[in-house]
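Lab manual, section 2.4: Encoding a predicted structure.

Procedure: take the sequence of the chain (90 residues), apply the prediction step described in section 2.3, and record the output as structure tokens. A sample record is shown.
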Amino acid sequence: KQMDKHVWIDEETEIFVGFIEDLVSEGRIADAGQFKPGSFEKLAAKMNDRFPCGGFQISHCKNKVKRLKEKYQFAANMAACSNFGWDDVK
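Recorded output:
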């Protein structure tokens, strides 16, 4: 079975992260850092309200959160390395 995929554009990702921040401030994150039941349904509904032609599904939102966590962990690991610094020129 082929999965229904969604190719995210930058604007969708930015809005999505804002919606995640809203859920966190509403207390929709459990102690283990996982979303409480119904959170992904709420995210998909908010995304479909904001982007009516997006066709966002719960699976799209779960996958996006997973990918964002992976990217964050990669950046956090890199920043934790000794001698890591930011060079505005390069």
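Check your result against the sample. The mean pLDDT is 88.
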